[in-house]
## 1
Amino acid sequence: MKKTNGKVGAIIVAAGSSRRMGAIDKIFARINGEPLLAKTVSAFHNCRSVDEIVVVLSKKNMELGRKLIKERNWPKVVAICPGGLRRQDSVKEGLRRLTDCEWVVVHDGARPCIGPDIIERGLVTAKDYGSAIAGVPVKDTIKIVSRRGIVQQTPTRECLWAAQTPQVFRYKLLAEAYDQTDEEVTDDATLVEKLGHKVEVYLGSYHNIKVTTPEDLAVAEVFLQNKEPKKSATAEALCASESDTTPIG
C-alpha cells in the first residue's frame, strides 16, 4: 500500500567534488564491495513508495554513473544528469527531469546508510505541512562562537536537531521555492522556510551519516555491515530521556 497519495519522485544528489576525501571519489568509493552510490540508490529503489529516481552527478562521473545504472538494471531510475556549480543548482536540474510527481524526496548521494523506513516516515510526516526533513537531536553542547573564537552564546540543547536528508516536499512547493530565490543555502528546507512555510522534522537515524572524509567511509562500512535498524536505539533512548525535545512543526 502506498504511504502517500500521488506520484513520488526521488532526487539523489551526488555531484560534489569530494575535496575532503583526498584522492578518493567518495561516490564511487568501494563500501562493503559495492560503489557507495549503489548503496544509496538501492535504498530508494527498494522503497515501495518511490516511483521514479533521478541521479545527479558531476560531469566527470556521468559515464561511470551510466555504467552502474545499466549494470544494476534499476527500472525506477528514469534519468541521470550533470549537476550545477552549487548543490541547489544540482537539485534544480533533478527537479526538471521528474515527470508529473506530487512529491519529491531529495537525498544526499553520500548518505549510503539510509533505509526505506526513513524514506517512508518522511512521506507520512510531510502530509501535514507539505514538507518534512529527517533529523536527530544533537548529543553535544553547542556553542555559538565569533570569528575570533570567543563563545557568544550556548543555546539550549533540547531545541537543537541536526538536519539530515531525505527531505520531502510537495513538488509544487519546492519548485516555487527554487523559483523565488537564488540565495545560496545548504539544504532545500531553508528555501522553503524562506517562503514562510512550516517544515516538520521527523526522527532520522544516527547511522544516517554523510560520508565526507575517509574516516566517515570506514564508519559507514560498519553501519552497513550491521544493517540499519528500523529506528536507531540511540535516538529512541535520547528522545525518551529528553521529553521536551519534539519535532519542529
## 2
Amino acid sequence: MAANIITLGRIFLVFLVIAMFQFGFGWCLGAVALTILVLYLDSLDGYVARKLGVASDFGAIFDITGDRIVEHIYLIFYCATGLISFVVPMVFITRSFLVDTLRSVAYIREGKTPFGKRSMMKSAITRFLTSSRFMRALYGTTKLSIFVLLGLSFAFEKGYSQGIRWFPEEWFSIGTRITQILVWVTVGLNIIRGLPVLWDGRYYLLERYLPRELKDEG
C-alpha cells in the first residue's frame, strides 16, 4: 500500500511541476528541484515494496504505469515548448504502447510479469537490457539528466526574457547542445531496451499459431 501511495504521489507531483513551469523564473527553478524528487520516488516505491515485503503483481504494473505517465507528461511538455523534437515523444509513446501491450498479453494469457520470478523475459540479453541493475541505473540516470537539464533550459530561457542573466549566453548554448546529445542518447537507450521485449513477446501474441516447442525455445 505504501509503495502504491508513493507512485500516486509522484503522478500528482508531475502535474504540480508542469503548473509551476507556467510562472516566473523562480517557480521554474522550483519545478526543476521538484523534478529531481519525482524521479527519485521512481526508485523509492520499488525499494519500499521489497523492504516491507508487500511487492505484488499489481504494484509492479502500477509502478510501470506511473513511470509512463511521468515520462510522457515531461516529454510532451518539453516538445510543446520547442525544446525537443516531436520525434522524441513519438518514439517513447510508441515504444510504451507496444511493450506494455505485450506485457499485458503475457500476464493475461500465462500469468507472466514484466520482472521477477515469473518474468516474461525469455533471453539473457532481454533480462540484461531491461532489468539488470547496470542498465536500469544507466537509463534512469539519462532520463533524470535530460528532464532536469531541459527544465533548466526552460527556466533560464524565461530568466533571460526577464533580464536575469546568471552566466554568459555562450555557456547556455553549450549546455543546450550537450542536453540535446543526451536526449538522443536516451532515445537510443529507450529503443535498445524495448526491442528485445518485443522480440521475446512475439510468442505471447502468436501462441495460437506456434507449437509449444518453438515458443519454449525463446
